[in-house]
Amino acid sequence: MRILTAAGRTTAVVLMLVAALGVARAQPQMPAMVPRAGLPPLRDVSATQYREHLDRLRRLVADCGRLITACDAAAVGDDDRVATPDGTKVVERFGWLRSLLDDSNDPTHQLRAELLPRAGERLVEQQAEMDALPKAAALAAEQRRARDGVLARKEFRTAEAEYSLTERIGAWISRQISKLFGGVSKLGRMAPWLGTALQWGTLMLALSLLVLWVLRALDRQRIALGRLGGDAARAQADAESRAWANLARTHASKAEWRDAVHCLYWASIVALEDRRTLRRSGTRTPREALQLIDPASHLREPLRAQTGAFERIWYGQQAAAESDYNEALEHYSVLHPAGREARA
Fold it and tell me: Percent of the chain, pLDDT > 70?
């Protein structure tokens, strides 16, 4: 029986320890001392000003417990550097309270109702610690002079730790970014559909820009190919016109004036097509080609004369002479300035 009783007592003690550890772990923890947005600037205050600050913070905690809209992390203010009665300075940080009142801190936000009473108790403890500091006794004039003389020595001239300008600017930027994203998170809770709309809007904008870029690239490629094709077509037409003129010169060297006039006519037509005066066509008659020339153009009269001679000699089966060839060559040289080379 004694063995069973001892074992039972041991088991009971172990169960009590496990239960105590479970309760301790289940209790909500206060937020970390270091704020997320960087260290805010320090404010030099006296003990009285520090107590007034603690009073305002206690009222802020109480208001936050009654009304959720009163939970404003920015209302906490800057951290304090308190001048104690004995001449030392104590730095008091309130990053834990800012984290508790910040809506963007989801874990703390969910446990805020349980943590607010503990925050109030902590503020009361901080004020009690300040009240418990020993009061400095007034020094006599001789003692003050002796103290000032000692502190004026070189070994006591130490630089007071301060945040540099770069650190203060970085902390300010961090706070502004935190406020910006905090406002976005509040807006997201008010309009849950806004995030999805922004995602789809961004995706559609990216796709639109991509399609626009592809269309512009294809347009530039089409223009480049058109230029290359136009140059090639003009070169081909010029070569074809020269070929007709060379063939006419060959016939003329053999006194085949009828064939020479025929070749010069087609050399002139190809030259006009090269100059975009006429559109290329394989079914157009000589009269139809003449009607397509603007009456006010200086090219109409040479083509009219060459067309009349060509129809008379080629279709009218009339004999051609060297003079007919020379006249056709003159007309060709007007319609195609490079046609003067055919005289060579």
Answer: 73
- Short-list 292, 235, 244, CA closest to 268: 244
12: its two tokens: 């009971």
Helix axes 193-253, 257-274, angle to 10 degrees: 160
Structure confidence at residue 149 as a pLDDT band (50, 70, 90)? confident
Euclidean distance between CA atoms 247 and 259, whole angstroms: 9
pLDDT at 39 over 90: no
CA–CA distance, 332 with 179 (Å, rounded to integer): 83
Could you tell me the two tokens for 149? 């003389």
288-316 per-residue burial string, b: 16 or more CB within 10 A, e: under 16: ebeeebeeeeebbebbeebbebbeebbee
- Answering whether pTM is above 0.90, one says no
How many other CB atoms are found less than 10 A from the CB of residue 79?
19
Q: How far is CA 49 from CA 61, 82, 312, in A?
A: 18, 9, 120
Q: How far is the C-alpha of 43 from the C-alpha of 82, rounded, in Å?
A: 8
Alpha helices (H) along the chain: 2-26, 47-66, 95-101, 106-110, 112-131, 141-151, 165-190, 193-253, 257-274, 286-291, 300-310, 322-335
Cα atoms in the Cβ-side hemisphere of radius 13 Å centred on 237: 21
**Cα–Cα distances in angstroms (integers) from residue 235 to residues 51, 65, 137, in the given order:** 96, 89, 110
Say how far apart CA 252 and CA 257 lie, in whole Å: 6
- 251, amino acid identity: H
**What tens digit of pLDDT does each residue of 47-81 get?**
888 889 989 999 988 888 888 788 888 888 889 89
pLDDT at 211 over 90: yes
Average pLDDT, the chain: 77
pLDDT at 36 over 70: no
Sheet holding 79-83, edge to edge: 42-46, 79-83, 89-92
Pick from 105, 104, 126: which is nearest to 31 by CA?
105
The structural domains of the chain, with segments of one domain joined by +, span 32-133, 233-343
Q: Which CATH architecture has domain 233-343?
A: Up-down Bundle (1.20)
Beta carbons within 10 angstroms of residue 37's beta carbon: 22
